[in-house]
C-alpha cells in the first residue's frame, strides 16, 4: 500500500483521467516519504488503471523507465537510452514515463542535458523529477516543470503500515515510525536493511552521554559497512526524534559537507562527538 499522499494521488489520477497531464513534473519533499513510490504508482495507473503499490511491485511496466541516480553525472548511455525510449510510441499507456530519482544530486551539466530532453520530448512523454529541495534543481529546468509537494504521512499511519507489511508488534512499529520521522521508506529500511540498522546502532552509541561509551570513531570508520553520509543521516534522525535540537545544526552542516568535500571521517566524528558530549552534559 502507498502510505498517505491522498491529495497528490487524487490530483494525478484526475489529470490522467482527463488526459491533461503536463509533460514534466517535479516531485518535492523529504527523502524517504514515498515520492518515488507515487511516481511509479502513476506510471502503473496509466498502464493498468490501478494505483495500489502491491500491483505496482508485482506487475512489469512496459512504458516506464526509472533512473535511480547512481551517480551525479548522467552517463551518455543513459541519455541515449532516454531519448530512444521517449521517441518510441507507448505500448500500453498513453504516455512513455521516465522517473528520475534523486535528481537533486545531478550535476549542472546533467541537468542541462535533461532540460534539452524535456524541451524536445514528444507529446506522449511524461518526465518526473524527484528531489528533496527545489533549489537544488536549476531554475531553467525547474521552470519547465509543474511542482507537486509531498509531506510525511502521520506516524500512526506509518506504524500501522509496518504492522501490516512487516508483521511486527504495535509498540515496536510505533518506535520505528517515530525514529523514521513518519517516513515510510526510512521506516522500511530500519526493518529490512541490515546495513542501515548497523548505522543506527552506531549512531545510538555515539549519542550516549558517557565519554566512556562503547563508541569509537577509529573503530567504526574501519567497519566494512560504514558509510560516513549514512551514519550522519542516522544520527540526524535520532537527534530529531529525541528532540536534541542543540545537536541538529552541527550534524546537518557536517552531513552537507560530507557529500561534497573530501573529509576525514574519524577526525570529523571525534570533533563532533566532543561537541555533542558538551551539549549533552
Overall description:
By secondary structure, the chain is α/β, with parallel strands linked by helices. The chain folds into 3 domains: 144 residues, Rossmann fold (3-Layer(aba) Sandwich); 39 residues; 87 residues. The chain is 54% helix and 9% strand. It has 14 helices and 5 strands. Strands 2-3-4-1-5 form a 5-stranded parallel sheet, sandwiched between helices. Helix 5 links the parallel strand 3 and strand 4. Helix 10 crosses helix 12 and helix 13 packs antiparallel against helix 14. The longest helix is centred in the last third of the chain and has 16 residues. The protein is globular, with a radius of gyration of 21 Å.
Task: Tag the structure with descriptive keywords.
single chain, 281 residues, alpha/beta, Rossmann fold, 5-stranded parallel β-sheet, 14 helices, 5 strands, 9% strand
Which class best fits the helix and strand makeup?
A: alpha/beta
Poorly predicted tracts of residues: none
- H/E element sequence: HEHHEHEHEHEHHHHHHHH
Which CATH architecture of the largest domain is right? Answer: 3-Layer(aba) Sandwich
Q: How would you describe the shape?
A: globular
Assigned CATH superfamily of the largest domain: P-loop containing nucleotide triphosphate hydrolases
Q: How far apart are the termini?
A: 43 Å
Strand tally, please? 5
Strand content: 5-15%
- State the name of the first-level CATH class of the largest domain: Alpha Beta
CATH topology of the largest domain: Rossmann fold
- Cα radius of gyration in angstroms: 21 Å
Kindly report the average pLDDT value: 82
* Number of structural domains: 3
Read across the widest sheet, the strand sequence of neighbours is: 2-3-4-1-5
Q: Helix content range of the residues, please?
A: 40-55%
Largest sheet: 5 strands, parallel
Number of helices: 14
Amino acid at each position: 500500500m502507498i502510505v498517505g499522499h491522498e491529495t497528490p494521488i487524487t490530483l494525478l489520477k484526475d489529470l490522467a483521467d482527463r488526459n491533461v497531464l503536463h509533460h514534466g513534473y517535479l516531485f518535492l519533499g523529504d527523502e524517504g516519504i514515498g515520492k518515488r513510490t507515487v511516481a511509479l504508482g502513476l506510471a502503473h495507473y496509466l498502464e493498468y488503471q490501478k494505483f495500489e503499490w502491491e500491483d505496482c511491485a508485482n506487475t512489469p511496466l512496459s512504458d516506464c523507465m526509472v533512473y535511480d541516480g547512481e551517480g551525479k553525472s548522467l552517463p551518455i548511455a543513459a541519455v541515449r537510452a532516454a531519448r530512444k525510449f521517449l521517441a518510441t510510441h507507448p505500448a500500453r499507456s498513453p504516455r512513455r514515463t521516465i522517473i528520475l530519482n534523486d535528481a537533486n544530486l545531478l550535476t549542472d551539466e546533467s541537468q542541462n542535458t535533461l532540460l534539452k530532453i524535456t524541451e524536445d520530448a514528444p507529446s506522449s512523454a511524461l518526465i518526473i523529477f524527484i528531489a528533496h529541495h527545489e533549489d537544488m534543481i536549476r531554475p531553467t529546468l525547474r521552470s519547465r516543470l509543474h511542482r507537486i509537494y509531498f509531506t510525511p504521512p502521520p506516524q500512526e499511519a506509518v506504524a500501522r503500515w509496518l504492522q501490516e507489511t512487516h508483521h511486527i508488534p504495535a509498540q515496536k512499529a510505533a518506535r520505528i515510525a517515530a525514529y523514521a520521522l513518519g517516513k515510510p521508506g526510512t521506516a522500511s529500511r530500519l526493518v529490512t536493511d541490515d546495513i542501515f540498522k548497523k548505522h543506527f546502532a552506531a549512531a545510538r552509541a555515539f549519542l550516549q552521554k558517557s565519554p566512556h561509551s562503547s563508541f569509537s570513531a577509529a573503530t567504526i570508520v574501519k567497519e566494512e559497512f560504514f558509510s560516513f553520509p549514512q551514519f550522519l543521516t542516522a544520527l540526524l534522525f535520532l537527534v530529531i526524534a529525541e528532540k536534541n535540537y542543540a545537536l541538529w545544526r552541527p550534524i546537518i552542516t557536517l552531513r552537507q559537507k560530507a557529500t561534497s568535500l573530501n573529509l576525514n571521517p574519524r577526525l570529523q566524528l571525534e570533533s563532533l562527538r566532543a561537541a555533542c558530549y558538551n551539549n549533552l552534559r
